[in-house]
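so my prof wants the structure for this chain in the tokens format not the other one, which i didnt know existed until like an hour ago. anyway here's the sequence
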Amino acid sequence: MGLRTAALAHESGQFTLAAALERRGHERIGQDIGSLAGIGSLGVPVADRLEAPSVCDVIVDFSLPAGTETWIAYCREHRIPLVVGTTGLSDDQRQKLKDAAGDTPILLAANMSLGVNLLFALVGEVARKLGDSYDPEIIETHHRFKRDAPSGTALELARRLAEAQGWPFPACLVHGRRGPDAVRDKNSIGMHAVRAGDTVGEHRVIFSALGETIELRHSAHTRDTFARGALRAAAWLVGQKPGLYGMADVLGL
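here's what i got, hopefully its the right format
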């Protein structure tokens, strides 16, 4: 994600790449980010720190929760707007984001895709219209290397659905089923995570009743979808007042 974000930022002509950041000790430290991204040398070596915070208008973070936590503190200290696309954050890390948003513009999104953010809105609307006589199930598929499960997108879909139905979240979630007596519980949301090959990302929300099934589905064909969304968010976030924002704010949903 970092390489594609860097490449698309440069190609857009809208951004100047100020720095490329990695964790301390990473094998790519010192290498040119443009060469790594396949767009030619940019004169911007990968580093583990931002030597001059003043050169940076906004930071886009696609890392792991521990890395995000580091940049939350850094951006809060230097008042740098922060776009967070990292998933799998703990409750404590989310609270740190909320605290930092009191001083700094922060944008947190479970998914940067325009289509997925429309899906978030649709899921709640469909759930409200159908009521609790339809059984909801969420199935998400990602590449074999993804660490967190269920995905942040799947959890956000479930949260929107539960909110629309008035069900307690996350208590209403059932993560897979097994055993000789696994009959479906009423007012529950089935959650299923598939990890296979190089799948970029697929999310299916099924509403099924006796006699019919409605399915909402989103497939990401390339990671560029998320990188472009993150760049759109970054451009929007610069100049905003301190606060915690989401992609719905960027897209006016």
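also thought this was worth mentioning. The radius of gyration is 20 Å.
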